[in-house]
Amino acid sequence: MASEFTAHAKAILMGEHAVVYGHDALAVPLTSLQLTTSISPDPEGLTLDTGTYHGLFEKAPHSFGGIQFVVRDLIERNHVDDHIRITYRSNIPMTRGLGSSAASALATIRSVNDWYSIGLSEQEIVAIGNHAEDIVHGKASGLDLNTVNSNRLVIYSKSDGFRQVDGKLGAYLVISDTGQMGQTRTAVAHVHDLIVSSSHARDDIDQLGDLSRQAIQCWTEHDVTHMGELFNQAQTILAHFGISTPLIDQQVARARQAGALGSKLSGSGLGGVVISAAATRDDARRIADALSDIASGVWIEAI
Length: 303
Known about the structure:
Blueprint: E1 3-14, E2 25-41, E3 47-49, E4 54-56, H1 65-78, E5 84-90, H2 100-115, H3 122-137, H4 143-148, E6 153-157, E7 161-165, E8 172-177, H5 184-197, H6 199-221, H7 224-240, H8 246-257, E9 262-266, E10 273-278, H9 281-291, E11 297-302
Parallel strand pairs: 3-5
Antiparallel strand pairs: 1-2, 2-5, 2-6, 3-4, 6-7, 8-10, 8-11, 9-10
């Protein structure tokens, strides 16, 4: 018998970097990318079985620090036997800004909670997950965890916190992986230096914030065409910041040539993924096909 739970990925739709300066960030759940955690008995003791590490829990690499905290905290607080094997299966690329660490933390908490019948409340599950995210990322906003734990559009700002929007845009998102790890801390520091030294960069950040505001309206009004235009405008600004890369630029150009309504990097930049908006599933498939030879992976999500 095993205890098994699944969590999905997420992507920033609009507002990356602008959110650091008080503007809204919009994040969408990506159910086409999922991570599943399962727990089963193991007489050898507490072990991990993942795509990159197989062995004793305590000897796992530093990158597993978040889930190590989760498991040890729950086992020690509840005084339960730790002879279990925790297995992970995932098609979420790591270090791409897709919420892989948040998904693993959430699925792990739910599996451990179920296996030991601990009875955690939803509020407790989220709090533990956010603590795990802090371990992985430093002080995390909570946006990743909130989005991998939702099936709705999630909006976050420093002043207003989190809110969720019902319904769908009525479009398709093509997610293409550059195969390059995102460099969040480097990108955030770079943009900060630009803003400190340049009034033009400060204006650009405010413009990105305005694009987020317009994107919320597009979502509620199901205005797919305008959303695509906002993607393109945001990509222009993010490229001006110097956080696009030649491969991101190549994927953006290829997607637009294939009929994307708009295309942009998603997340911190300097690697990661590109998202492209399509009006129909057939359009999305055509864009995905066009990207297949220059992307490490391509997925289609109805949004």
